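Usage

Read records sequentially. Each one opens with the input sequence:
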Amino acid sequence: MKNIKVIVATHKKYQMPEENMYLPVFVGAEGKEENITKGYQRDDKGENISGKNPYYCELTGLYWAWKNLDADYIGLVHYRRYFTMEKHLPKDEENRFEVVLKEKETKKLLEEADILLPKKRHYYIENLYAHYIHTMYGETLEETRNIIENKYPEYLPEFDKLKKRTSAHMFNMFIMKREYLDKYCTFLFSVLDDLEKRVDITKYDSFHARFFGRISELLLDIWLETNHLNYKEIKVMDMQPINWIHKGSSFLMAKFMGKKYEKSF
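and closes with the structure output:
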């Protein structure tokens, strides 16, 4: 029987799935009073990097799970974004919690692959590298390339494909076998640790200083493809409506007018 734990990264109290495999983790818990995080696993217990949450986002939760969680399979989702097998989603958020991916469904999927990922997001009109450069500050991606070239040269060919690829598994969401999680996190946090030493975070505003979480979204596929790992894709469900008009206009402003993103969507 597979022991599966999927952490739900959150920074505030929120409705959570009732399935036992989900573990709500309060990210950035360092310095927070116990009454604020009551009922949730704090990411500042045991071996952790909770204090880096303003820059690492949900990755402080992933780090905590990697170092402290005992399970055969470990996953990461978000308090407002989950996997689902449902084709037609309920309109209101409360009913959407009823169709969040269930443990029974997860176990069946893991019989087909050791890694579960969100369906790829497609950008169509520009490649992943260009999209990052247009919406964020490019030096962080360039420094990441330098680190990989020097430290993990076997990953460089896949990294350079960012200039050709127009789709990726985004959101830092996955469920994977513990063996693979160990290898992925070893690679990921090694690269990000070096990146932290090379880039002056203080010159960015609070939104752009969270580039570690955005870089990691690109590193996942680089790690997967380099290691020729098989995976299965699952639909991702946002619990609340997204303003696609605003998001689309911001995307076009970034591409054609050089206006960087100013907030998450």
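Summary fields computed downstream for this record:
- Strands lie at 4-10, 22-26, 41-42, 73-78, 81-84, 115-118, 121-122, 167-168, 174-177, 232-238.
- Residues 244-248 have pLDDT under 50 and may be disordered.
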